[in-house]
Amino acid sequence: MSVNNPEKVTRQREERRSQILQASIGIFAKKGLAAAKISDIAEAAGISHGHVYNYYASKEELFVSLVKMLQERYGRVCEEARSREGNARDKLLWHARKIGEDENALNGMHVVLHAETIAGISAEEKREIPRRAVENLQPIIAIVKQGQEEGTFREGRPEDLAVLYFALLNGVSGARRRGLGAVASPDEEQLVGLLCK
Fold first, then answer.
1. Above 80 in pLDDT, residue 135?
2. Cβ–Cβ contacts within 10 Å for residue 175, how many?
3. Residue-wise pLDDT tens digits, 72-85
4. Cβ-based burial of 34 (10 A; exposed 0-12, middle 13-18, buried ≥19)
5. Whole-number CA gyration radius for the chain
6. Residues 87-106: pLDDT tens digits?
7. Which among 32, 60, 94, 166 would be 20 to 30 A from 129, CA to CA?
8. Closest to 133 in 3D by CA, of 174, 92, 162, 161
């Protein structure tokens, strides 16, 4: 890296941090924080074990950064779904497909879901995880309200239906991760259909 171009150095550093985060998603989803090793993450990222520590001081810091990145990414997908043209059913169907087609998104949902229960995370970060989750739910609540106004979605509190949708999406992704897709694999049409009248 050239010290003559600080912007390039910063960009390369951020790219490497992102590379490490991306590589860690599957490792943390499969093994959890306690069993995951920095050497596994380094191998998946294609870098040396010690090089990871140039970007993250500890495995816990890496994990917390990952959870935050995953929640921010999921929030952008939720907001994109809300701002799309069209009816609420199509927006939610787009959202479910967008999440369902991305293995990192499915693994990421698993990582975030279990993050609050992990001992190596600070109390402050454990408070931030549900705060970000509630924030990410707001676009889905707006879509549900739109669907109710259109007469497409069931009656009920939009917040409850949005949480139900999220729980179903997470449950289907978890079932796929555990190999239950060979027995039954509900698709996005079925998932969104459960919210419809």
1. yes
2. 15
3. 999 999 999 999 99
4. exposed
5. 19
6. 999 999 999 999 888 888 88
7. 94
8. 162
Cα distance between residue 25 and residue 96, in whole Å: 20
The angle subtended at Cα 185 by Cα 181 and Cα 187, nearest 5°, is 140
The backbone torsions φ and ψ at residue 196, rounded to the nearest 5 degrees and listed phi first, read: -85, 160
CA atoms within 13 A on the CB side of 23: 22
* Sequence-distant (≥ 6) Cβ neighbours of residue 187 within 8 angstroms: none
Q: Kind and range of the H or E element at 24?
A: helix 6-35
Distance CA 98, CA 1 (A): 36
Q: For residues 113 and 170, is the Cβ–Cβ distance under 8 A?
A: yes
Amino acid identity at 117? T
The residue type at 155: E
Question: Residue written as tokens 């698709």?
Answer: 187
CB 29 within 8 A of CB 108: yes
**In the structure encoding, which two tokens stand for residue 129, read together?**
């995880």
For residue 152, pLDDT beyond 80:
yes
